[in-house]
Amino acid sequence: MSLLETLFGGTVIVVILHWLLGRLGLANYWRGVISGAVPTIAYAFYAVINGDGLDVIAIHVAIFLATATVLSLLASDKSNTGKRMHWVPKALVVFFGLLAVIDGTFVSISTQGVPPWVASMIMPRAKDHPVYSGFSGVTEHNDQAAKAVNEHLKMLSDEQQLGWEVEMIGLNTLKAGSATSNKLTMRLHDRQKQPMQNAVVTLNFFRPGYVQTLPPLQLQQNKPGEYDGSISIPDTGSWVVKLVIEADGKRIEREHDVSVTAS
């Protein structure tokens, strides 16, 4: 499940539990405790299994407990006065509700990027090509960064001169999960369309900004010009895959932005 599904789904569960416990005649204090604790504990188990980060866990716990607290305060105020609630508390509830929605949306976009259907409406290029808008980390703007750009341009020029044909299969269907094995296949041909054998092919997976990296994956040749391998990716969201190919004394590198979805 995505962050938005767990966050707002859990919030809805808090509200329903609080209402149901009230219908059963449970004391307001225990309504707040139970309605906040049940979704929080349930999500804690899910987070451990799914490998969610501490920032994602923190926002879930904060929203669930805050929702239960606000509902208990409102129910207590209503039972004490016996009158309709003043519009000011209602406005505050709406304000903080919107704030929670906005914060949850920002966290989701920063980790997984803008949903494709939204990107296609607000980003012109997204209609024809995949656009990955997750947080890419901090990029330096100095002499070293400029040198890296020049080296990258030179690498692209060298690759065009070699004329190698590289086809990667499996990068568009990556699934997250420590128990999920993603099969990847690379097909390599030379300028004359002939399969290239005995190449050393390495894949490096990392988060944008190098905030999280996985051990390098070396693909093995199973037939002329075709190399296979499998990898497990722990988290969903935007990843970068760096492909390194060494053959015939030459070397090329490519980077691909990929989106990993839940299994």
Automatic annotation (TrEMBL):
It holds the Pfam family FixH. It comes from the Bacteria. The chain crosses the membrane at residues 6-22, 29-49, 55-75, 87-109. The keyword Membrane applies. InterPro entries: FixH. Keywords: Membrane, Transmembrane, Transmembrane helix. This is YtkA-like domain-containing protein. It comes from Sulfuriferula plumbiphila.
